[in-house]
Amino acid sequence: MKFFLDSANLDEIKAAADMGLLDGVTTNPTLFSKEKGDWREVAQAICKECPGPVSLEVVGTTAEAMLAEARDLISFGPNVVVKIPMILEGLKAVRQLKSAGVAVNVTLVFQPLQALMAAKAGATYVSPFVGRIDAIGGDGMGMVEEVLSIFRNYDLDTQVLVASVRSPLHVVRAALLGADVVTVPFAVLKDLAKHPLTESGLETFLKDWGKVVKG
């Protein structure tokens, strides 16, 4: 399973790369709003820093507006994936971008039929938002399981990118289900490595080694 970092922060992106856990980056307008400086310069820097796909999102709500933004975004680097919202106008844009050879990530997917429609339109990735579904009493990972089953039934090559990840449990379940990609905030990425027995074990080893070196 590929690990993408859900961030527009260059320090976080560099840190994830140093750990060998940066297969790609996903961004959105909210993430860019938290960063200082011109968003275009930040986006271009991310594209240079990240060796894998970088999802940059359009904000238009018509196919024409989305396509115009997409033409601008892909100039930022050869690894740009254009992020398109799961609306009917978005599907029109996805189809045209697919025909032009542009990679697309369809975002704001909340039910399996939306994912199927996006795949049929030509999406490279679909992004089910599991945390937001859980937050309203639904089963986000259950929805991911349904999407994966549908895609396997029809041998669709669109990749399932698990998004809106809130905890390591989401990542574990995504891996068990066979999701193609999971995109995680930096805080969750760090939590993946934590376990109280690891921490207590290390503390014990260091304490015992102190006895060894003291002779």
Strand content: 15-25%
**Helix and strand run:** EHEHHEHEHEHEHHEHEHH
Sketch the major β-sheet.
8 strands, parallel, barrel
Mean pLDDT reading: 97
Number of strands: 8
Amount of helix: 40-55%
Poorly predicted regions are: none
Main structural class:
alpha/beta
- What is the rounded Rg? 19 Å
Intertermini distance = 46 Å
- Helix count equals 11
Spatial ordering of strands, largest sheet: 1-2-3-4-5-6-7-8
Overall shape: globular
Describe it.
There is one protein chain. The protein has 215 residues and is of the alpha/beta class. The protein is built from eleven helices and eight strands. The protein has an eight-stranded parallel barrel with strand order 1-2-3-4-5-6-7-8, surrounded by seven helices. Strand 1 (2-6), helix 1 (10-18) and strand 2 (24-26) form a beta-alpha-beta unit. Helix 4 (63-73) crosses helix 5 (88-99). The protein is globular. The model has no long low-confidence stretch (mean pLDDT 97).
